[in-house]
ABC transporter permease subunit (Nesterenkonia alkaliphila), 287 residues
Amino acid sequence: MTPNLNTASSARPPAYQVDPTLSGVSFLGTFRSEFAKLKALRTSWWLSIVTIGLGAFIAGAVAFAYQQFAGDFSTNALDMAVQGQTGSFFAMILLGSLGVIAITTEFTTGAIRSSLTAVPRRTTLLSAKALALVVWTGLTTVIMVLIAHVLTALIADPLGLGDIVTDGEIALMYAKTWLVVVLTVLLGFGLGTLLRSSAGGIVVLASIMFVVQIVLSILMGVTDGAAWVEALIQVEYMNLVEGFINPTAGEYAFFPVLDPGPAAVGLLVWTAVPLVLGWLSFTRRDS
């Protein structure tokens, strides 16, 4: 009996789809898997090592410069601690880029399909990735902050080694520095989830941190300090960072700086918008 060639040729294998009703791996198991992925990613190690090394170098350089020119100006322990954490600004862009790469590499390599096979619930998968990223970059930031403090305290007289635990203002400033870096990492993660492009996410992140500030500064001069430009400067990302971390930022800033409370709200909004948009994109678009 001759087979029906038309019927055979028209047969198509069913399209592969992940069943979202399956429970898949538990959240804890998913978190462990995502953390293991970060550990296996060489980029994670390199960016973390550079972050810690650069933070230590800048802290040492700032403290050494102060000791050399201490006769020309004086400062207190809190201001010295703030200056010693200047490397955190580089940590923001470096670890923020890691936040982008942590999700975009899965889209680039197609590994996201395997991840969704193991964890069909996309919100669970995305949350576990974000938590693993927070733990990794949070530990990196803690190491950077502590090393920077030790070097600054050993080199510069105004800051004492024990001030990190005896001075509440300094301890709070370090905690805020840690939080700002982690929020920037989540900002990068949200951009990466939304754009699904490493280059695009990193460029947008760098623009938010640096380019917007430059553009607004130019507009401030061109418009002779227009009120609407001043309002935009107040909610610009890095201006919010400065207002949140540094309690004396308003005394020396060229532009108006919000108080720590409103600045914290602004930073949360900056972080939440790309995260929510990225989550909507991840849960509703095909991978």
User: Anything to note?
Assistant: The chain has a mean pLDDT of 88. Residues 25-284 form one domain. The chain is about 80% helix and 0% strand. The CA atoms of residues 56 and 147 lie 6 Å apart.
